Amino acid sequence: MTPAICNQYDVSIVIPAPKGVPFQVPTTAVTEHEFFGAQGFHALIGRDILSRCLLIYNGQLGLFTLGY
After folding, report:
1. Using alpha carbons only, what angle is made at residue 40 by residues 34 and 45, rounded to the nearest 5 degrees?
2. Which among 5, 49, 12 is positioned nearest to 31, based on CA atoms?
3. 24: closest CA among 33, 11, 7, 36?
4. Cβ distance 14 to 23 under 8 Å?
C-alpha cells in the first residue's frame, strides 16, 4: 500500500428522530479522502458508529433500516 496524506476533522453526528431522542455521537475523528467521489458518495459510516445501532439491509429491495 502507498501511504496517503488526508485531512482529519473532529465531527459530531446527529441523526434526527421524528419522535423521541435523536441518535448522537459526540466528537469523533474522521478523515477526508476521495475514494468514492466518482460514485457520488460524500461520507461512509464505519463500524465504529454502526456498532451502536442495528442495521438491517434488504439487498433485494435496495432498502435499509437503521435502529438505535
Report:
1. 70
2. 5
3. 11
4. yes
HEC assignment per residue over 2-25: CCCCCCEEEEEEEECCCCCCCEEE
Helix H or strand E segment including 47: helix 47-50
**24-65 pLDDT per residue, tens:** 998 988 888 776 667 777 677 888 888 988 999 999 999 999
Residues whose CB falls within 8 Å of the CB of residue 23, separated by 6 or more in sequence, listed in order? 13, 14, 15, 17, 52, 53, 66, 68
Residues 35, 42: Cα–Cα separation, whole Å: 10
User: Where are the domains positioned within the chain?
Assistant: 8-67
Going by the DSSP 8-state scheme, the letter that residue 62 receives in this structure is T
